[in-house]
Amino acid sequence: MKAITARQRAAGIDGLTLEDMPYPHAAENDVIVAVHAAAFTPGELDWPGTWTDRAGRDRAPSIPGHEVSGVVTELGFGTTGLSVGQRVFGLTDWCRNGTLAEYVAVEARNLAPLSATIDHATAAALPISGLTAWQALFTHGRLSPGETALIHGAAGGVGSIAVQLAKEAGARVVGTGRAADREYVLGLGADAFVDLDHGRLEDIGEVDLVLDVIGGQILYRSAALVRPTGTVVSIVEPPRIPADNGRGVFFVVEPDRAGLVELESRLRDGRLRPRVGTVYPLADAREAFAPAHRPRGKAIIQLVKGS
């Protein structure tokens, strides 16, 4: 099969190559997915899991990408809950070969069914950003109706999903970003917007939840706004919480079929809109990784057009 491979960590993006790789093996409880569309996180070439397996053994050349949307073509021994020919999407394991390939082996529990009305490119934009937002708001943040959520990077992949989910949950939502993001964030349903270059976080008042994707001083200043019963959730670094200002949570997103099902239902009926960016063919994946070629929205690698 054709796949994008990374052979040397020091080579970075320049080391990405399109080449022939062996067809993946379906281990117990795996499925093989024919990839129709895939996505990646730009920094994953620096992740330890890209280069070593869970036992610490070198696994180069590795195939990057951890978000997938496609069709099940094979079931591993003992696999239940999915069937050959089924449309699926989800988040793959950090320490296994990824989704920038024609086929990928995935644990069945990391995938959810995908309705025929949702195109694969849109679905591939959702797993990491969507599950991160879902787990931050509801699993770790325990957001409830009537509470106030402060969402940093509200125009980005995670932030834009979080704004929509928090608003649907009945929260008051304050989004942050740069001035150019204001209308987009308000259009997603945010009740207020703060320009981090010129506005004052301290003018927001008390909040029940902070979702941080920035870290540093923004995270620390935001923590001071949280009510004693509130939570600061960061995907960047462990929050430093001033005394009597709630609790802090740092987490890394985890695969979760139940969460994917919740996100898919909202995507299907139009309650959720991922921010899809430029769509590239597999051969141009290296270009998609380059910062100069990443406009707003999630870059998508599409292997099967019109699906």
Automatic annotation (TrEMBL):
- Record-annotated Enoyl reductase (ER) domain positions: 11-301
- Keyword set includes Oxidoreductase: yes
Give a yes or no for keyword Oxidoreductase in this entry.
yes
**Per its UniProt record, what InterPro entries does this chain match?**
ADH-like_N, ER, GroES-like_sf, NAD(P)-bd_dom_sf, Quin_OxRdtase/zeta-crystal_CS, YIM1/Zinc_Alcohol_DH_Fams
Identify the domain of life.
Bacteria
Please give one Gene Ontology molecular function term for this protein.
zinc ion binding
- What keywords sit in the KW lines? Oxidoreductase
Pfam families from the UniProt entry: ADH_N (PF08240), ADH_zinc_N_2 (PF13602)
PROSITE patterns reported for this sequence: QOR_ZETA_CRYSTAL (PS01162)
Do you know which PANTHER family this protein is assigned to?
Answer: ALCOHOL DEHYDROGENASE RELATED, RETICULON-4-INTERACTING PROTEIN 1, MITOCHONDRIAL
Name assigned to this protein: NADPH:quinone reductase
> From what organism does this protein derive?
Mycolicibacterium goodii
